[in-house]
Amino acid sequence: MKFDMGAQTLSTLIKGSRGSSSDLGALVRRLVQAAQPLEGKFNGAGRVAFDQFKARADGIAGELNSSLAAILGGQSGMESAFGSGDQEQGENARRQMSAANFDGARFR
After folding, report:
1. What is the pLDDT of residues 27-76, one digit of tens each?
2. Would you say 83 and 6 are in contact if contact means Cβ atoms under 8 Å apart?
């Protein structure tokens, strides 16, 4: 099995995730603002759920941002691991090539 990933793949993913992180929190806040006209229109359990959502909107946005920050941390760790693995692979190849006896492999 071969796994081939471009050198910029994780960097691009991190940039996209970073932008999504701030966008998601803003979207939750916009959802609450958009639902403002519905306030007071619900009764019973629907009203309780609506009021709880509205009261927790900042917490929800914070939790989402926190979760995405953890994902960004994981992506950064993967980028670091892949980069050091690629460098180590190159160093190992150079070390093996310098130890090889290429002159002994000549056919005459």
Report:
1. 888 888 888 888 888 889 988 988 888 888 878 878 888 888 888 888 88
2. no
Tell me the C-alpha distance between 47 and 70, whole Å.
33
For residue 11, count CB atoms less than 10 angstroms from its CB and return exposed for 0-12, middle for 13-18, buried for 19 or more. Answer: middle
* pTM tops 0.70, yes or no: no
Alpha-carbon span 51 to 39, nearest angstrom: 8
- DSSP labels, 14-40: HHHHHHHHHHHHHHHHHHHHHHGGGTT
Q: Strand, coil or helix: what is 7?
A: coil
Q: Give the torsion sign (CA, 49, 50, 55, 57).
A: positive
**CA nearest neighbour of 53 among 24, 21, 27, 29:** 29
Give the C-alpha separation, 50 to 32, whole Å: 10
Q: Which class for 85: exposed (0-12), middle (13-18), buried (19 or more C-beta within 10 A)?
A: exposed
